[in-house]
C-alpha cells in the first residue's frame, strides 16, 4: 500500500475520526483546526497537528495544500468556512478534495466550486443502513468512490448456469470477483463455474448496475 499524504481540516468528531484512522493505517496525516484545544487533543495521534484558519488563503498556501494527495475538509456547522476552505484548497491546486456537506444544498454548492467528492456523513450512513436492512443478502458494502461499490449478493433461483452463460458483465455491467459457497470463498472464479441458489457472489459495479442485478434476482 502506498502511503498517502493527507491534510484534514477541522477536528470535530468527524475530522478527528478520519485523521486518527488514516494515521493508524500508516498514512501521513497533517491535522489542522482553528481552535488550539482541538489541535492539542490530536497532537499524539497524527503525524503533525497545527492551528490554522482554512478560510485564510495565505495560511493554506503556507501549509502546502497543493502537495497533499488528499485534502479532507471536515468543517460541518460553519457552512461559510467550509465553502471558503474548499475553495481555497481547489484554487491553490489541491488535486483531490473531499468535503463534508450538511445538506443537499451544501452538496450542490460544494460540487459547483470544484470539490472532488462531497459526502454527507449522516445522510450517507442512513442510506447505507436502510439498504442493509432492506437487502439482508448483502453482508457488507464497500464503497469505492466514483459511484463504484463492491457488494455481496446471494444468488437466487433466477441465476442458474455457468458464469460464462450468465454473462453478468454483458447484461448488467458488473463483474463477479469472488464466490462464497458453504462457508468457503473462491477468489477469481472461472467462467465455467456454475452458480447455485444461495451462493454468495462478491460483485463489483456501479450503484446503478448493482441495483439492476438485485432487481433481476428479486432481492
Ligand atoms: P463535527 O460534527 O464533525 O463535530 P463540527 O462542524 O462540529 O463537526 O466541527 C468542525 C471543526 O472545524 C471544529 O473543530 C472547528 O473548530 C473547525 N473549524 C471551523 N472553521 C474552521 C476554519 N476556518 N479553519 C479550521 N478549522 C475550522
TrEMBL record:
<dbReference type="InterPro" id="IPR050721">
    <property type="entry name" value="Trk_Ktr_HKT_K-transport"/>
</dbReference>
<dbReference type="InterPro" id="IPR003148">
    <property type="entry name" value="RCK_N"/>
</dbReference>
<dbReference type="InterPro" id="IPR006037">
    <property type="entry name" value="RCK_C"/>
</dbReference>
<dbReference type="GO" id="GO:0006813">
    <property type="term" value="P:potassium ion transport"/>
</dbReference>
<dbReference type="GO" id="GO:0008324">
    <property type="term" value="F:monoatomic cation transmembrane transporter activity"/>
</dbReference>
<dbReference type="InterPro" id="IPR036721">
    <property type="entry name" value="RCK_C_sf"/>
</dbReference>
<dbReference type="Pfam" id="PF02254">
    <property type="entry name" value="TrkA_N"/>
</dbReference>
<dbReference type="InterPro" id="IPR036291">
    <property type="entry name" value="NAD(P)-bd_dom_sf"/>
</dbReference>
<protein>
    <submittedName>
        <fullName>K+ transport system, NAD-binding component</fullName>
    </submittedName>
</protein>
<feature type="domain" description="RCK C-terminal">
    <location>
        <begin position="137"/>
        <end position="219"/>
    </location>
</feature>
<feature type="domain" description="RCK N-terminal">
    <location>
        <begin position="3"/>
        <end position="119"/>
    </location>
</feature>
<dbReference type="Pfam" id="PF02080">
    <property type="entry name" value="TrkA_C"/>
</dbReference>
Amino acid at each position: 500500500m502506498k502511503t498517502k499524504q493527507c491534510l484534514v481540516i477541522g477536528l470535530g468528531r468527524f475530522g478527528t475520526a478520519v485523521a486518527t484512522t488514516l494515521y493508524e493505517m500508516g498514512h501521513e496525516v497533517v491535522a489542522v483546526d482553528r481552535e488550539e484545544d482541538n489541535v492539542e487533543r490530536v497532537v499524539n495521534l497524527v503525524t503533525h497537528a497545527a492551528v490554522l484558519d482554512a478560510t485564510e488563503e495565505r495560511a493554506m498556501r503556507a501549509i502546502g495544500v497543493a502537495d497533499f494527495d488528499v485534502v479532507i475538509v471536515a468543517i460541518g456547522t460553519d457552512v461559510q468556512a467550509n465553502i471558503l476552505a474548499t475553495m481555497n484548497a481547489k484554487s491553490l491546486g489541491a488535486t483531490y478534495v473531499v468535503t463534508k456537506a450538511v445538506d443537499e444544498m451544501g452538496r450542490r454548492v460544494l460540487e459547483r466550486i470544484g470539490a472532488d467528492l462531497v459526502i454527507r456523513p449522516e445522510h450517507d450512513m442512513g442510506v447505507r443502513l436502510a439498504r442493509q436492512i432492506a437487502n439482508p443478502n448483502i453482508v457488507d458494502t464497500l464503497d469505492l468512490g466514483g459511484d463504484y461499490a463492491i457488494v455481496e449478493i446471494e444468488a437466487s433461483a433466477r441465476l442458474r448456469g455457468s458464469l460464462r452463460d450468465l454473462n453478468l458483465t454483458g447484461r448488467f455491467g458488473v463483474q463477479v470477483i469472488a464466490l462464497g459457497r458453504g462457508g468457503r470463498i473462491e477468489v477469481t472464479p472461472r467462467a465455467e463455474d456454475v452458480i447455485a441458489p444461495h451462493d454468495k457472489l462478491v460483485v463489483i459495479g456501479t450503484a446503478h448496475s448493482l441495483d439492476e442485478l438485485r432487481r433481476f434476482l428479486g432481492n
